Amino acid sequence: MIILLGETAAAREIAAGLRNRGLEFERAQIWTEKTYLQKPLVILDASHPSSNGKFASLSLWCEQRGISYLRLERPETKIPASPLIFPVYNWEEALLELKQRVENLYHEKGRRVTIFVTTGSHQLESVLLCSFACSVRLVVRVLSQGYLVQKCQDMGIHPRDIVAMQGPFSKEINRVLFKFYGADILLTRDSGLAGGTDTKLSAALELGLEIVLVKKAKPSTGLAVDTVNELLDWVDNNIPDKR
């Protein structure tokens, strides 16, 4: 059995490719061992860039059980040289950097600091629990799915500060949104060109925003490819089609 992880555009493209090859598979947003009674033979991971630790953990779990694991990565974005960009490599570093940036701006501006968040809702609560939370206004951009909007509201984010939109976004759309919400800091991930990282960075830099950028670390275990075509080539070479 093949398990395809993710609800991204790339995951949908992979699903179409598997169907065209006559291969049976199941879709899932995230992997939990208890979800499947039958042990999968292959896990194709096209989930959205997030904590790289979970990729490594899943890859190790598969390795221990003889399950093939293939991760679709997004090539890193070429980051412009700018003193406004503060790269970090995990979420803990991101929170520490945010704390420093917020304290500096709060002291400089004498008002609450607006953070525009494009990392999704998964780790949003950890920002709300930080010591600097009382000094910030969070504006969160999430996918236009009702349960994500409700999740943000349940965490205390006001509806006016929830931007529910389907990307990727052009530089101009990003610039307009950042300016409309009065953003001071952009919190984002390096999700590659497919995730619009380049347009977010260029729009934020044009407006003079400080940027806390969560970079990606390469998985230490398992296989990784950069494109959907590479992933499907691997499928062709390792899984017989049923046509």
Description:
The chain starts with a strand and ends in a 5-residue tail after the last helix. The chain has a 6-stranded parallel sheet with strand order 5-10-9-6-7-8, with helices on both faces. The chain has 2 domains: 93 residues, 3-Layer(aba) Sandwich (Rossmann fold); 130 residues, HUPs (Rossmann fold, 3-Layer(aba) Sandwich). Helices cover 37% and strands 20% of the residues. The model has no long low-confidence stretch (mean pLDDT 88). Helix 1 runs parallel beside helix 8. The protein is of the alpha/beta class and 243 residues long.
Which terms summarize this structure?
single chain; 243 residues; alpha/beta; Rossmann fold; six-stranded parallel β-sheet; five-stranded parallel β-sheet; 8 helices; elongated
SSE inventory with pairings:
Elements: E1 2-5, H1 9-20, E2 25-28, E3 42-45, H2 52-65, E4 68-72, E5 85-88, H3 91-109, E6 113-117, H4 124-128, E7 136-142, H5 146-154, E8 162-164, H6 171-180, E9 185-189, H7 197-207, E10 210-214, E11 223-225, H8 228-238
Parallel strand pairs: 1-2, 1-3, 3-4, 4-11, 5-10, 6-7, 6-9, 7-8, 9-10
Helix pairs in contact: 1-8, 6-7
Brief characterization of the structure:
The chain is an alpha/beta fold. It has helices at 9-20, 52-65, 91-109, 124-128, 146-154, 171-180, 197-207, 228-238; strands at residues 2-5, 25-28, 42-45, 68-72, 85-88, 113-117, 136-142, 162-164, 185-189, 210-214, 223-225.
- Distance between the first and last residues' Cα: 17 Å
- CATH superfamily grouping of the largest domain: HUPs
CATH architecture of the largest domain: 3-Layer(aba) Sandwich
The SSE order reads EHEEHEEHEHEHEHEHEEH
In this structure, how is the largest beta sheet organized?
Answer: 6 strands, parallel
The pLDDT mean sits at 88
> Number of helix segments?
8
Per DSSP E runs of 2 or more residues, the count of β-strands stands at 11
Radius of gyration: 19 Å
List segments where confidence is low: pLDDT < 50 over at least 5 consecutive residues. none
Share in helix: 25-40%
CATH class of the largest domain: Alpha Beta
Structural domains: how many: 2
Q: Please name the CATH topology of the largest domain.
A: Rossmann fold
Say what oligomer this is: single chain
Strand order of the largest sheet: 5-10-9-6-7-8
Principal-axes geometry comes out as: elongated
Beta-strand content estimate: 15-25%
Given helix and strand content, the structural type is alpha/beta
